[in-house]
UniProtKB/TrEMBL annotation:
Keywords: Acyltransferase, Lipoyl, Transferase. It comes from the Bacteria. This is Dihydrolipoamide acetyltransferase component of pyruvate dehydrogenase complex. Pfam families: 2-oxoacid_dh (PF00198), Biotin_lipoyl (PF00364), E3_binding (PF02817). GO terms for molecular function: acetyltransferase activity; lipoic acid binding. Residues 191-216 are annotated as: Disordered. Its EC number is 2.3.1.-. Forms a 24-polypeptide structural core with octahedral symmetry. Belongs to the 2-oxoacid dehydrogenase family. It comes from Ferrimonas marina. GO terms for cellular component: cytoplasm.
Length: 533
């Protein structure tokens, strides 16, 4: 039996990835959990393993191409099913529910329940809005499902006839498994073995509905549209087919008025918008031409696409600068005693296989300071009406990794010993430099450290890693002359530190007090003993 491997959800908000390298070829036998491909998202390099044993019959992408999440990545002939393929269909037993084969000229496709929320792997089937045998249109709501966060309405990705519903009302449906089967028109005769979705089939975009909206949608469509818009500002509601049509015409869907339910953009809306645009004056196009002209005139200019981690960093930093009012606070730390303490402990840590740098001291002492000033370990909502204090200190560390700048974080620093923090730092740095940081390590951070001094430089104005409210840049260690308490000049080991804070949450006085508290712990490291748990 031939089976398509559907590329699963590989990270929060990730909808596509670059195929970096195939680790197998067509015709190769593979074992369960064997690595098949390396793909690069906008966050990390991810290795895709085989979920079952068999033989690779088709690779749907070439190296360097962009693969879509929830679309087929490769095809496998499952082991032990070759002989069974020639047997009568009645004698074949499939491991998952299969759609009934419709009449000639139609093909039945399983609708795979897509990712419907961060960390959600299953949902309750609340109500079917259609029945088997019903004719449905593209974008027509098919069912309501309830996650642990919201009521979600699942639309059809194309027109057809419902051939099978795989779940009863009240049952639990699994994400990335068939939800229903849809018979659609086909230009060639299909057989029972051709019921899998084609490689270019795009995933459906579920429409989240809050509980309050779901109960009042029938009575007030305008309120429902407002609620949906608030849930996803700046993003048009549209099916994958409509989005694909918009991409083909280089069209921004947010500019297209939607005539569907809750403002959903339909194919007719796109065609109507394009027809209107074709009759519009062309002066704006002529006005934009001089911008591109200088690039074209430069002989030998090289154009390089911005992808993966670099693209994600560009978007994240742009968003942070545009939405967060930054302010900078700088100070000088005398780390002479801390450097001596680290040197005295270095040998003991090496015996346990741990490289001890100054970073674990910075991270652990920062957590202690956050306990005294929890406002710097908080998040503010978009309207600046609520401040959420976070119980865990998930401290991020900016790393210049193989794929570019990454900010993995160490979870729960407030509960870790200095040794455990050092182990976590070494592990994250090694993974980031190899480009294989887990998605969970890249999310959930509460405050960040950028160690620019490891490369060079003393003072910086770091950009806050939203939705965090502060970030600190550590300058390089310098041995400089300073006056002691007796007025004598002596050599001291100094570091310049530079804070950027979210002025909506933190004022200058709070930042100064917090920084003084942190400096006291680092300049007299024995004070950390008072705060250790």
């Amino acid at each position: 039996m031939l089976k398509d491997f559907i590329l699963p959800d590989i990270g929060e908000g990730v909808v596509e990835c670059e195929l970096v390298e195939w680790l197998v070829g067509e015709g190769d036998d593979i074992a369960e959990d064997q690595p098949v491909a390396d793909v690069m998202t906008d966050k990390a390099l991810v290795q895709i393993p085989a979920p079952y044993q068999g033989r690779v019959t088709k690779l749907y992408y070439n190296k360097g191409e962009i693969a879509k999440v929830h679309a087929p990545l490769f095809q496998v002939e499952l082991e032990g099913t070759t002989a069974a393929a020639d047997a009568p269909a009645a004698a074949t037993e499939t491991p998952m529910p299969a759609a009934e084969v419709p009449s000639q000229g139609m093909v039945s496709q399983d609708f795979i329940l897509p990712d419907i929320g961060e960390g959600i792997v299953e949902c309750e089937l609340v109500e079917w809005l259609v029945a088997e045998g019903d004719q449905v249109e593209e974008d027509q709501p098919i069912c309501d499902v309830m996650t642990d966060k919201a009521l979600v309405q699942i639309p059809a990705k194309e027109a057809g006839v419902i051939s099978k519903l795989y779940y009863q009302k009240g049952e639990i449906a699994r994400v990335h498994e068939p939800l229903f089967a849809l018979s659609v028109a086909s230009s060639v005769p299909q057989t029972a073995q051709q019921t899998t979705a084609q490689p270019d089939a795009a995933p459906v975009s579920p429409t989240p509905i809050s509980a309050a909206t779901a109960s009042s949608a029938a009575g007030n469509n305008s309120q429902a549209a407002t609620a949906v818009s608030a849930a996803a500002p700046g993003k048009a509601l549209a099916s994958p087919a409509v989005r694909r049509l918009a991409r083909e015409h280089d069209l921004d869907l947010s500019q297209v008025p939607g005539s569907g339910k809750n403002g959903r953009v339909l194919k007719e809306d796109v065609h109507h918008f394009l027809a209107q645009s074709s009759n519009a004056p062309v002066e704006p196009q002529r006005a934009s031409q001089p911008v591109a002209a200088p690039v074209a005139e430069q002989a030998g200019a090289r154009v390089e696409p911005i992808r993966g981690v670099a693209a994600a960093m560009a978007k994240q930093m742009t968003h942070s600068v545009q939405t967060i009012p930054h302010f900078t606070y700088c100070d000088e730390f005398d780390l002479t005693e801390l450097v001596a303490l680290r040197q005295s402990l270095k040998g003991e840590y090496e015996q346990q296989g741990v490289k001890l740098s100054l970073m674990p001291f910075f991270i652990k002492s920062l957590s202690m300071a956050l306990t005294a000033f929890p406002r710097l370990n908080s998040r503010v909502n978009a309207d600046c009406t609520e401040l959420t204090y976070l119980p865990e200190h998930n401290i991020g560390l900016a790393v210049d990794g193989k794929l570019g700048l990454m900010v993995p974080n160490i979870k729960g620093v407030e509960q870790r010993s200095l040794l455990e923090v050092a182990q976590g730092v070494n592990q994250l740095i090694e993974q980031a430099r190899d480009g294989r940081v887990a998605a969970s390590d890249l999310s959930g951070g509460t405050i960040s450290i950028s160690n620019i001094g490891a490369i060079g430089g003393t003072v910086a104005t770091p950009i806050i890693n939203a939705p965090e409210v502060a970030i600190v840049a550590l300058g390089k260690l310098q041995t400089l002359p300073r006056f002691n308490a007796d007025g004598e000049v002596e050599a001291r080991t100094l570091m310049q530190i530079s804070w950027s804070g979210d002025h909506r949450v933190i004022d200058g006085a709070t930042m100064a007090r917090f920084c003084n508290h942190w400096r006291a712990l680092l300049e007299k490291p024995e004070r950390m003993l008072m705060h250790l748990r």
